[in-house]
Amino acid sequence: MATEPPLAFLQSRVLLVLLAIASLVLQTVALAQALSLEEASTHDLQLAFRQNNLTSRQLTNFYLNRIRMLNPLLRGVIEVNPDALSQADRADRERKAKPYGSLSALHGIPILLKDNIATKDKMNTTAGSFALLGSVVPRDAGVVARLRRAGAVLLGKASLSEWAHYRSSGAASGWCARSGQGKNPYNLSEDPCGSSSGSAISVAANMGAVSLGTETDGSILCPSSSNSVVGIKPTLGLTSRGGVVPITPRQDTVGPMCRTVADAVDVLDVIVGFDPYDAKATREASKYIPRGGYKQFLKADGLKGKRLGIFKPFFDFSSVSPVAKALESHFNILRKQGAVLVMGLANFSEVYSDSSEGVAMSAEFKLALNAYLRDLAVSPVRSLADVIAFNNRHKHVEKIDEYGQDYFLASQATNGIDKTVKSAWRNMTRLSRDGFEKLMKQNKLDALVTPDSMVTPVLAIGGFPGISVPAGYDEHGVPFGICFGGLRGSEPTLIEIAYGFEQATKVRKPPSFKW
Helices 419-431 and 357-375: crossing angle, nearest 10°? Predict the structure, then answer.
């Protein structure tokens, strides 16, 4: 007959476990201090790998411990990958076996993925909702397959505004049922912005080396601005949407969210390219990928000779606020770095008015989501109607009474692509052609410059790229960015501009975690 172990024995075992955990934390802290792992770039980390000062396992443990310490407060990560350390071990073995120069810039680097990007592994892909918990995807998302081939360590899934902020018009930015309310690490009482909030929160707080987000309209550029990180919203189709929980294939894109422009470019170089599961868009956009990749455009003098368009009403230099003063200073820096500022452009409303974006998106979402859900190998829900019913059955958990699901209900009420949707498409095409494209070409602009993410509706409806770079902090310590937007395929030019601005200003600082 079995007997209970003595209390003293149990206490000693618990003490040993606690001592082991404490030892691991102390080792990680010592390693971080020795190698300055906080704020370390992918270049710094690869150099430490090559010099045998760091292993991918040590680095992955560092981020796992950061997540354990900070995530209960920040809610930037939904779950960690149980296979992350084994992937790190594999990367360490490969580094010893393969010659220097044969491995990618992301080899052995831990990356966090927004929880609407599918991984065919032990992690869930749920868009932050319990409705998809336990579902099984048929395959890795196209961008994830590329990350695996590059040897990146899939560290975990970042939180997000649930369903990429498309369930309800009243939902709090950064909230999802599975992880709760994401917090801005610079000011915990302020909006982290969405929907890729967790991706921005996590890299800003050094809970991951780099991350991926997705954007339909502002979901990379806005949280990047609000959390003092660099976000690249690529040209539509430059990165595959295959395996990504959709809103609309006409606007959805996947892009990097990192602490520096160089890191974001390292990620971009890995994830761009053709994917048979997003064939039409990726085939069309592949023509924009430069031979030799994007890293060649990281030029410190990248602003020289660039023509930058300014909507003057966006920049009120008569204000004495820290934001206005910082932007005025940045404009002077842009000029000193050789950029030509084309001021006083047409009002924003002349470039972007009522685009009927919402009308088209509502009909497209139902079709796109139903197709995604039908393709799942296992799923408790197979249609938007099923998700709506799930939410009604679990009102408390999904905060239906508080936040609602009006976007879902409106989308469910649509009936395919009718005349109204087609009219909205024509309107958006006209606005892009006669608004943004005409503005850029007539003024011979390399980029349009706006504070924060004000330009996102323009970029969204036309599938245009944009890059947000940290630009400063307001009187409450909340970050703000500056966004450079351009025509389709203009990533090389935008990278030159963004990198030149970043190197000339270098305003990013680690978060303060204050209330």
Answer: 110
